[in-house]
Amino acid sequence: MEVGQKFPLTIKRLGINGEGVGFYKRNVVFVKGAIPGEEVTVKLTKVSPKFAEAEILAIRKASEFRQEAPCPVYSECGGCQLQHMTYEAQLMNKRDIVIQAFEKYAKEIGQTAEIRPTIGMDNPWHYRNKSQFQVRKEGKRVYAGLFTEGTNQLLNINDCLVQHPVTSKITVATRKILQKLNIPIYDGKTLNGLVRTIVVRTGMRSGETQVCLVTTRRELPHKEELIERIKKIDPSIVSITQNVNREKTSLIFGPDTFILDGKEAIHEKLGEFAFDLSTRAFFQLNPEQTVHLYNEIKKAAALTGKENVVDAYCGVGTIGMWLAEGAREVRGMDNVDEAIADAKYNARTNDNLQHVRFFPGSADKWLFRWSKEDYRPDVICVDPPRTGLEPGFIRTVLKIKPKRFVYTSCNPSTLARDLKELSKSYNVEYIQPVDMFPQTAQVECVVKLTLKK
């Protein structure tokens, strides 16, 4: 195969990044925008020893699930990968992405465990409660949006269909204010300028919104007028902050945050629990679907009120709090000190959580220490980063052997790898995919494991 080569191709599956996957002379070919079941004519754009990439020249036989993407900048943006596919098909193919991961990394589990249909949303649009749009300037015009896939070219976005409408409204109005007041805008090439990102987060249930300007330095020209104009954009705005990030980095936030107006944090609820969300505090981006995800974790934990529960990789403690009602005791731990501080605060400010405690440090360290003190959890729940579980943690779990293990994962590949190790002592009862990010190729899973007898 060589770049520029053209040939017909039948699309067999969906790849982990949302691209169609076909085979040409036993070579894997990834085709962006193609749907399983389609017959297409493609042109190779990249050839590697193990795979090739191609673009569609013509669709010879379209899938019954193909649709016109409703977003006008869908093909340029890259933030979503599946808008050209009906939502029904998205859910089916996300389950298949999970199946593929187990075929590749843990074939026996894939053949024996129940992989359930994906739990989707009633309305798979406008679900994201937080936007982080980069700001740049061309001529006299200020833009706010996302970088076009694979480039440093900023795509101006006025209305993102997966964002809550108020976040789009406030972002657009704020960039217009920045332009009107002629406030210096960050230049990603020269690193000059001031304002680099507009971050907007809204409470889906509280109706409170926070606006944060991420800048390269503390000094803010026309500060008072800027604040007054932002306040007038929408009555939901109760907090305006400034975060200073001086580094040349892809990370959004720097270490220092200052309150410009209003409250330090906005209020939000998840189920029966209340949270105060400061500018940098982690919180699920899709609160509606998070309730379904956490209820699946609760089902898999199967608590009776007698169990000691460990919430490893606990973050700000939301899963541990969700399980508290059915547990004798909950202990959570995380390596991020700020997350543990938030978790402790969240537990203090909600009723009936006196039996929930959080500890800074690694999960395997605490489990080993507690086992020496004759404390062994009945149930362990984990929700690790995309890289999966640390090998030392898996070894510790296999030593202390809790009765049940609930694994929540945002990466089917590392999930399959880790379950292969855990299956030495555990039965994988079922795998439940959950669609946390409709229109994208991402899929979350909740897995119930029970100790082998």
Automatic annotation (TrEMBL):
UniProt cross-references to InterPro entries, sorted A to Z: MeTrfase_TrmA_AS, NA-bd_OB-fold, SAM-dependent_MTases_sf, TRAM_dom, U5_MeTrfase_fam
Gene3D superfamilies noted in UniProt: 2.40.50.1070, Nucleic acid-binding proteins, Vaccinia Virus protein VP39
Transmembrane parts of this sequence:
none
What keywords tag this UniProt record?
Methyltransferase, S-adenosyl-L-methionine, Transferase
Xref: SUPFAM superfamilies: Nucleic acid-binding proteins, S-adenosyl-L-methionine-dependent methyltransferases
What positions does UniProt annotate as the active site of this protein?
C410 (nucleophile), C410
Q: Where does S-adenosyl-L-methionine bind?
A: Q284, Y313, D334, D383
Q: Which residues form the TRAM domain?
A: 1-58
Q: Which residues form a coiled coil?
A: none
Q: Does the keyword Endoplasmic reticulum apply?
A: no
- Respond yes or no to whether keyword DNA repair is given for this record: no
What is the similarity comment for this entry?
A: Belongs to the class I-like SAM-binding methyltransferase superfamily. RNA M5U methyltransferase family.
Q: What is this protein called?
A: 23S rRNA (Uracil(1939)-C(5))-methyltransferase RlmD
Q: Source species, please?
A: Solibacillus kalamii
